[in-house]
Amino acid sequence: MTAIATDYEVVIGLEVHCQLKTASKMFCGCSADYSGAEPNTHVCPVCLGMPGVLPVINERAIEGIVLTGLALNCTIASFSKFDRKNYPYPDLMKGYQISQYDLPICRDGWLEVVVDGERRRIGITRVHMEEDTARLLHRVDPVTGEAYSLIDVNRSGTPLMEIVSEPDIRSAVEAREYLVRLRQVLRYIGVSDANMEEGNFRCDANISVRRRGDTGFGTKVEIKNMNSFRAVHDALVFEARRQVAVLEAGGRIEQETRGWSDERQETLSQRSKEHAHDYRYFPEPDLPPLKLSSAFVERVRARLPELPEAKVARYRALGLSDYEARTLAEERPRADYFEALMAALGGDEARRAKLAANWMLGEVARWLNANQADIEGFPLAPEALAGLIEQVASGTVTALVGKEVFDRMVATGESAGAIIERQGLAQISGQDELVGLVRKAIAANPKAVADFHAGKETALKFLIGQVMRETRGRANAQVVQELLERELKK
Fold first, then answer.
1. pLDDT tens for each residue of 176-193
2. DSSP states along 329-351
3. According to the model, what pLDDT value does residue 327 have?
């Protein structure tokens, strides 16, 4: 499909459903950790929707949504309520979902994203609490070829936040960046794993197009079945182009729900889009209104950690580049390790930040990539790594030997000092110790000597390398260079 016409503008709003990490479900005592469990084993009369049972609000889930609202700059409502959202899908055991409608817990927030160097603030209309649905497992009979569906109720009733953005997003790239940043915040504050692949972070998109300069909105289409950031981006690109093509051909956009097909790389019509009145919302009669005191909100606020953008700003103020700062702050466990490593080093903050960043983005990143691990699987405590860094920084060992000691440390768990002492790896800096090796290198490499006198700079580097090899990387390279230059000029 051709690129979107430049005289059209895309308008996108995202609805993100995110499961909270709680021990039990939203309105009953069943375990919310159903991963890997046999179907229909984490169930009770409440999440099965049996008659006569009563829901009870999970306080930990309320703490989680308030923490989320605070992290997203929302106003936290002192008074809210739950509502019944009625629809007849088979994955809803009761025939309705306990959700929130006109009085959500969190509203009027925002999240900033940076796209192509431009900072954009995306408004967040609301963050409300609801319960997740059961899962439909679609099967095909191997004998008859007939399709059928099974229901697994384990997921039903899991605490679910819906985070609804304003229609402020103007491109598929911006939508993807918003999702990346939102997931980062949710993981930082520890309320959710926020994995799209595992289904605990799910996104629906509302998209329309309009002529540039228009202030009204076009007819919106909802897109579902997007299970990765790439799928969200590709679905929005396709749908924007599809809508423009329809309008350019003189057609009209129908308000509907469409599903994204990864296989066909296109959106497919599923059903006409429901309106709020179709759900017949009314207050949940089995739950009292939810009143949150200012003391409760402040207790939750006290748990709010330093958020990613604040960390990036602080790291940059310490002299790190934007790339270094963003890479180190990208995930909270990585940032926590970096902070602990800085604390274990000596000197002023700028020195500690630079040394810690160099090793985190160098040798530590190399080991993690080679072992397909994250920082939580890294075997060295920050204090142990700091011991090695100080040995290199002080000149006790060379940078080359430091890398060798690093590999032995992660393999054996020994300290840097023990490895250096046992294997005699301390740096050789004395001229008396090195001058003989320098003269030996000069005598063994007459061509390199001739090249040096002919003005070839690489010849000196070659000779330095010969001495370093002879000393197994232990020689002080600066001293070796000074000795070579002195001996070669005789």
1. 999 999 999 999 999 999
2. HSSHHHHHHHHHHHHHS-S-HHH
3. 97
- DSSP-derived 3-state class of residue 396: coil
DSSP code of 371?
T
Centroid of chain to Cα 364: 19
3-state class (DSSP) for residue 223: strand
Task: Decide if 203 contacts 15 (C-beta within 8 A).
Answer: yes
242-247: long-range contacts, CB 8 A cutoff, minimum separation 24 = 242/1, 242/266, 242/267, 243/207, 243/208, 243/209, 243/218, 244/4, 244/5, 244/8, 244/209, 245/1, 245/2, 247/8, 247/209
Global pTM value? 0.85
Distance CA 56, CA 266 (A): 42
Residues 6+ positions from 374 with CB-CB distance below 8 Å:
331, 333, 334, 368
Mean pLDDT of the chain: 91
> Is 269's pLDDT higher than 80?
yes
Contacts of 178 (CB under 8 A, 6+ apart): 14, 111, 113, 122, 165, 169
Structure tokens of 489?
A: 């000029």
CB count within 10 Å of CB 22 equals: 21
Write out the DSSP string of 87-103.
---TT-TTSEEEE-SSS
3-state helix, strand, coil in the chain (%, to 5): 40, 20, 40
Rounded CA-CA distance 131/151 in Å is 16
CA-only gyration radius of the chain, Å: 30
Task: Judge contact between 10 and 171, C-beta under 8 A.
Answer: yes
Residues ≥6 apart with Cβ < 8 Å to 283: 81, 82, 83, 84
State the SS3 of 167-178: CCECCHHHHHHH
Q: Are strands 266-272 and 256-261 parallel, antiparallel or unpaired?
A: antiparallel
Q: In the numeric block, which tokens belong to residue 170?
A: 């103007």
Examine the pLDDT at 275 and tell me if it is beyond 80: no
Residue found by looking up tokens 């569906």 in the block: 149
pLDDT at position 218 over 70: yes
The per-residue pLDDT for 1 is: 43
- Residues in the chain, how many? 490
